[in-house]
Design a protein that fits this description.
This protein is an alpha/beta fold and 510 residues long. It is built from 18 helices and eleven strands. The chain has three domains: 231 residues, Rossmann fold (3-Layer(aba) Sandwich); 144 residues, 3-Layer(aba) Sandwich (Rossmann fold); 39 residues. The model has no long low-confidence stretch (mean pLDDT 97). Bound molecules: 6-O-phosphono-beta-D-fructofuranose.
């Protein structure tokens, strides 16, 4: 049986060769139906793949690849709670946090548990709303930070205004110092969010905040390890559960989104979930050729494996989505940054590109020079919002015109007499347009990326739900801690030893 890598190679190589010299501008000119036929609308979301460097035949081959890789069945398996996270022996049922699209007992049970936790969360939200608390501090890192942080920031136009919501993340004590000095412990509640409740950063910052609060009365926790949260000093009635069947980076839909519910209210949180559920129904039901997350994933595979492009930019033309690239860095790179299959074999093909990006138009005045004239083509997702939530009509027209101009310039390029003023063009991009940025459309957008990541993992034959790559550094940091504290412990590595000597000498000098 062909491996995932062989299947990708044999399907895409002939088209990659055939299109080797193809130019996006020529593909568009040659195929007048392309702007319409390479676009898809799903609810409040519109996607155009018309500026990708593939034609109809290559796109059909990609869809056939998805079929041959068993994408349809793999998506069904995800919803049915099959053990897709094989290295940790568990399902990845984040979809059950927002959708009831499976009859499988494990998925139905997960959905029921999520609903019960949401009811408890709503009670805690109501109690906090009725209290004299003014500020909320979410203490967490990775998936216990990036999702809630993105959503709270993106939905600031939908905030109830009841609380100011802050995020404390970095183990660097200056993060705690600067945040806490602006807050009143008597009017602040803290939520310690940690799936494992064993994450060093969160436990250290949690202890700082617990001491600063001077008691546990306004201390809350969200964790899959409830006993550990309680042992930390959080009262059982203020601990909300999550479960090992939700990956940290897929968890904002659970009680990990407590800070979101406090920022936008329970109704806003439910609307976010409803938007994700819209995308869940779509990915499950739409034929592969009209399936937005599937086409997004197949396009990523094309750019990575057929065109050999090693980075990918995410460029939201909406300041409220400025944190999206940081959120997607974890979602995409922690999920797909793998080089072996679940059987331990070399995956045999390039996997995750480096994901990076920033908001437009700011980024136009920093790294866009390299996008236009650098030696590497960088495929990009441009994201725009049609109707703004502000009255500054001229600003919005300028924003949209810049968005359209950049995708056009990157694709078409420009030949000038002076090579320094020429633009090679032929740089692929996808354009995602939201009718408006609201809880429901944001939920759908995030779920689109989640499903695209899963589809890519299936196509590459890797596990999207573990992250063993982060463990080695954590272990070494734990081993080095006594030496850094100055406990006189010798270290094995000579370079680390020399660096520690240098640190000690400089610290002694003050
Ligand atoms: O170090 C990586 C990681 O395990 C992420 O996958 C996770 O989102 C983050 O740490 C935080 O973990 P926890 O929620 O258990 O504190």
């Amino acid at each position: 049986m062909a491996t995932a890598a062989q299947r990708i190679d044999s399907t895409l190589a002939p088209h990659a060769r055939r299109l080797d010299a193809a130019r996006i501008a020529d593909l568009v000119t040659a195929d007048t139906g392309r702007p319409r036929d390479f676009a898809l609308r799903v609810g409040g979301l519109y996607a155009s793949f018309a500026r990708q460097r593939y034609d109809r035949d290559a796109r059909d081959a990609l869809v056939a690849l998805g079929d041959a890789a068993g994408l349809r069945q793999a998506v069904r398996a995800l919803f049915d709670g099959v053990t897709v996270n094989t290295s940790e022996g568990r399902p990845a049922l984040h979809v059950a946090l927002r959708s009831a699209l499976s009859q499988a007992p494990i998925a139905r049970d997960a959905h029921a548990q999520a609903a019960r936790a949401r009811t408890r969360m709503a009670e805690l939200v109501a109690a906090l709303e009725a209290s004299d608390v003014t500020d909320i501090v979410n203490v967490g890192i990775g998936g216990s930070d990036l999702g809630p942080r993105l959503v709270v920031d993106a939905l600031k136009d939908f905030g109830t205004g009841r609380f100011r919501v802050h995020f404390l993340t970095n183990v660097d004590g200056s993060d705690a110092q600067h945040l806490l000095k602006g807050l009143d412990p008597a009017r602040t509640a803290a939520i310690l969010v940690s799936k494992t409740f064993s994450t060093q950063e969160t436990l250290l910052n949690g202890a700082v905040v617990r001491d600063w609060l001077g008691g546990s009365e306004r201390l809350y926790a969200v964790s899959a390890n409830v006993p550990r949260a309680e042992a930390f000093g959080v009262a059982p009635e203020r601990v909300l559960p999550m479960w090992d069947w939700v990956g940290g980076r897929y968890s904002l839909w659970s009680a990990v989104g407590f800070s979101i519910a406090l920022a936008v209210g329970m109704a806003g949180f439910e609307a976010l979930l409803a938007g994700a559920a819209d995308m869940d129904a779509h990915v499950l039901e739409a034929p592969l050729a009209q399936n937005l997350p599937v086409l997004h994933a197949l396009t990523a595979i094309w750019n990575r494996n057929a065109l050999g492009l090693s980075t990918h930019a995410v460029l939201p033309y909406d300041e409220r989505l400025a944190l999206l690239p940081a959120y997607l860095q974890q979602l995409v790179m922690e999920s797909l940054g793998k080089s072996v299959t679940p059987d331990g074999d070399d995956v045999g093909i390039e996997t995750v590109p480096v994901l990076w990006g920033g908001p437009g138009t700011n980024s136009q005045h920093s790294f866009f020079q390299a996008l236009h004239q650098g030696t590497q083509a960088v495929p990009a997702d441009f994201i725009g919002v049609v109707s703004p939530a502000h009255p500054y009509v001229e600003n919005h027209a300028a924003l949209l015109s810049n968005l359209l101009a950049q995708t056009e310039a990157l694709a078409n390029g420009y030949a000038a007499e002076d090579p320094q003023k020429s633009y090679p063009g032929n740089r692929p991009s996808t354009l995602l347009l939201l009718d408006r940025l609201a809880p429901r459309s944001l939920g759908a957008l995030i779920a689109l990326y989640e499903h695209s990541v899963y589809a890519q993992s299936v196509l590459w034959g890797i596990n999207a739900f573990d992250q063993w790559g982060v463990e080695l550094g954590k272990r070494i940091a734990g081993e080095l801690l006594p030496a850094v504290r100055g406990d006189g412990v010798a270290v094995d590595d000579p370079v680390t030893g020399a660096l520690l000597d240098e640190i000690r000498a400089r610290a002694a000098r003050g």
